[in-house]
Amino acid sequence: MSTMLRTGQKADLPVINGVIERAVMTWRLPDRVKRLSLPLYRYGAPDLDHLELWVADTGDGIAGVAAWEPADPADLPEGWSGLLLHGLYVDPARQGEGHGARLLEACLGRARALGLDGVLVRAQADAEAFFRARGLERLPVRDASRDYALRYWQRV
User: Fold this and answer.
1) How far apart are CA 27 and CA 31, in angstroms?
2) Burial profile 66-84: b = 16 or more Cβ within 10 angstroms, e = fewer
3) What is the pTM of this model?
4) Residues near 52 by beta carbon (within 8 Å), at least 6 away in sequence
5) How many CA atoms, within 13 angstroms, populate the side-chain half-sphere of residue 141?
6) Nearest Cα to Cα of residue 151 among 120, 117, 119
7) pLDDT per residue as tens, the chain (156 positions)
8) For the chain, how many structural domains are there in total?
9) Phi, psi at residue 58, to the nearest 5°?
10) Cα(88)–Cα(84) distance, rounded to whole angstroms?
């Protein structure tokens, strides 16, 4: 069965949020922290007006989701433009099948198509190895009061 990348729709949101919940619950954090933070990771209909949301649809369900938006220039390497990969989640039962890599490549392709310099990622600690394995460069923290600690950058 082949995977199709497509734009996520309002009707997909319950399934998308299920993928996100299952992914977040695998993170190496205390269960209480995961439960309390989970509402911040879910997407709602208003998010579709501000984010590009894509899904990896295997034909028998959504295996992964990625969302991106224009990045704040203050968060990017100086003088560069880019997209912020807002979230990238793969259902734990479908990890290792390439869905995350395909969704990341879709984001990079979108940045290229828009004439931007690259993609910025604010990674969760459990995802660092995924982004490093795909050649993303860890950015230094310039301002500890503002910068997200685990920022990665991929030039397109």
Assistant:
1) 9
2) bbbeebeeebbbeeeebbb
3) 0.94
4) 7, 67, 68, 69, 110
5) 9
6) 120
7) 588 999 999 999 999 999 999 999 999 999 999 999 999 999 999 999 999 999 999 999 999 999 999 999 999 988 999 999 999 999 999 999 999 999 999 999 999 999 999 999 999 999 999 999 999 999 999 888 888 899 999 999
8) 1
9) -90, 0
10) 11
DSSP element (H, E) containing 111: helix 99-113
Write out the residue range of the structural domain in which residue 129 sits.
Answer: 4-155
Q: Which residue has the tokens 């959504």?
A: 62
How far apart, in Å, are the Cα atoms of 114 and each of 2, 48, 87, 104, 144? 27, 19, 19, 16, 30
Phi first, then psi, for residue 27 (nearest 5°) are: -65, 150
Residue located via tokens 């208003």: 46
Bridge partners of 64, per DSSP, are: 56, 90
- CATH number of the domain that residue 133 is part of: 3.40.630.30
Long-range contacts formed by 125-131: CB under 8 A, 24+ apart: 125/27, 125/28, 125/150, 126/26, 126/27, 126/28, 127/88, 128/152, 130/100
CA distance 33 to 126: 15
